[in-house]
Specification:
With 378 residues, the chain is an alpha+beta fold. Helices cover 34% and strands 17% of the residues. The longest helix has 27 residues, at 7-33. Bound molecules: 3'-phosphate-adenosine-5'-phosphate sulfate (PPS) and magnesium ion (3 copies).
């Protein structure tokens, strides 16, 4: 019999991520089809949109309803600071609309909707409730409402990532990838560009999906995106996914962030060359890179953030457990597991993150990091 541990948590998390994807798709279509004031810049100049706050409020509300607002601890990326500024009234109203529109569809996803629409105050409370800082003990939900917000505002790849950490270990990971394309070769095409220059319709481009896994199950699952306007029971079943079996570097594809500011692409290129990876890197926004490894569409993902940047747990938790359960290996560049037990950052991370479909490629790459690091000036 299938192990029922965490069955309810997983079920609710998967449904909540499907709902979040539905919200994001609606907002992204709006952003692309008209010029919009629904994007703000944060203090570090990174973007945040109606979708980031809308998803955070929606998922926070759903988890609190099911598991109890007093007992649920949520670590998530966004706060209400920029939403509360005097010129943000229109933005806040758009967030409240997006949340209520999304929650109206909850029954189609198998979840309960609120008795009446949430007020502005309730939406702000739901966002603010996600102020946990995690840590080594207890249960903490970890949410990146929109990962790859840059990709999102550019009409490209992005992900919704929800994980459950218990006593410092990632137990459940759910990754929504609403723009995951039909063909793996299309992963690094510019989605918006492609849409405007190709006769392909939305349907033939998109193969959006939600991936999920439970730690220790040895299985990772893929569900096509559920539609909010159709009852969920009439929609598709999940299927098992598995990492690629390629271990010859010459046949392997490696992924990395699109933004040069987020990863040292020239160091990764040197490393790739030294281990015999010959193909052009697949540059993809967001945790869709983890999804590509878990689905077997690429073999390696490497990220080397600049010195001083601290990776956050919500940018990795869901992807790590999904890749591991699909048969892959994830460590820092020193070969150690990522430590999710020390608050909002991956404290102690050694240089970068290496995700591989198997141990052979992984050992080669970690070995090459040791051999090349001193001369890399990082
Ligand atoms: N300087 C720097 N270095 C490394 N990482 C950074 C940096 N700045 C931001 N971030 C975080 O990167 C998240 C997106 O990472 P990606 O690997 O997907 O990069 S990229 O979008 O493909 O360029 C992105 O996640 P979101 O904010 O959720 O989009 C950030 O948390
Ligand atoms: Mg992120
Ligand atoms: Mg984000
Ligand atoms: Mg962000």
């Amino acid at each position: 019999m299938e192990d029922e541990t965490y069955a309810k948590e997983l079920d609710v998390a998967v449904k909540a991520v499907h709902m979040a994807c539905s919200l994001c798709r609606r907002v992204q279509h709006g952003l692309i089809s008209r010029t919009s004031d629904e994007i703000k810049s944060k203090d570090d100049d990174s973007p945040v949109t109606v979708a980031d706050w809308g998803v955070q409020a929606t998922v926070s509300w759903l988890l609190s309803e099911v598991f109890g607002s007093q007992s649920v601890s949520i670590v998530a990326e966004e706060d209400v600071q920029a939403l509360s500024e005097s010129d943000s009234a229109g933005l806040l109203a758009a967030v409240v609309d997006a949340v209520n529109g999304c929650l109206d569809e909850a029954p189609n996803f198998g979840l309960q909707k609120p008795d009446k629409h949430l007020t502005t105050q309730e939406v702000l409370e739901a966002i603010k409730r996600c102020n946990s800082t995690g840590g080594p003990e207890g249960r903490h939900w970890v949410l990146d409402p929109v990962d790859g917000t840059l990709g999102f505002v550019r009409g490209n790849q992005y992900a919704v990532a929800l994980a459950l950490i218990e006593d410092g270990k990632v137990i459940i990971g759910v990754l929504g990838c609403p723009n995951y394309p039909m063909k793996r070769e299309w992963l690094n095409y510019h989605h918006q560009y492609y849409q405007s220059t190709s006769p392909a319709t939305d349907d033939s481009w998109e193969k959006g999906c939600v991936l999920y896994a439970r730690r220790g199950s040895g299985k990772a699952w893929l569900q096509p995106l559920l539609r909010g306007d159709v009852n969920f029971e009439s929609q598709y079943e999940a299927r098992l996914i598995r990492v690629s079996s390629v271990d010859d570097p010459a046949l392997a594809t490696f992924c990395e962030p699109v933004e040069k500011a987020n990863s040292n692409q020239s160091y990764a290129a040197g490393l790739a060359h030294s281990v015999g990876l010959r193909k052009q890197p697949l540059r993809v926004y967001s945790m869709v890179k983890y999804a590509a490894i878990a689905r077997g569409d690429a073999e390696v993902f490497m990220k080397f953030a600049r010195c001083g940047y601290k990776e956050k747990i919500w940018d990795h938790a869901a992807g790590v457990v999904i890749v591991q359960e699909a048969g892959g290996v994830v460590t820092d560049a020193g070969g150690k597991p990522l430590d999710f037990s020390r608050g909002i950052y991956l404290e102690g991370l050694d240089r970068g993150i290496i995700v591989c479909c198997g141990a052979t490629l992984h050992e080669r790459i970690v070995g090459a990091v040791y051999a090349s690091w001193d001369s890399s000036n990082l």
